[in-house]
Amino acid sequence: MLDCYLVYRCVFAELTKRNCNTGEIRLTGWYNNTGRVEICNEGRWGTVCVDSWDWRDARVACRQLGHSVDKATAIIFSLGSGEIWLHDVRCTGTETRLIDCPAGPLGTHNCLHVEDAGVSCLTAGESMSSMMMLFMYCMSLQNVILEKSG
Prior knowledge:
The protein is built from 3 helices and 6 strands; from the N terminus they run H-E-E-E-H-E-E-E-H.
């Protein structure tokens, strides 16, 4: 049986805190082109809420990260922690940085980490592997359990 907690610890162990610049984004997840979107504000990483999150927002995030936007897909990728910096993001899809998109005020939200936004930045010839889909499902279940028990 797959131990979701061990998978989580292995995959995210390398994500130590480091200085970052406001507006910088990163993906936390199994692959470098699929995962939870995290954005920096005043030197601290935080998450983005899925309220209003769609393919246009995913295109901007993928573009900012230097990934393909061919099949940019908005996903829920929970298990974030810390601050939730962005919510109600409403990109047009043409912006170069996520922070340039219309959104609610930084740090103001009504979200939980079960609502963390993610993206999959696949190229036209790629598809998400069954292992990746299993991992994402496992992480979502683990987060629901943690939210209910906390």
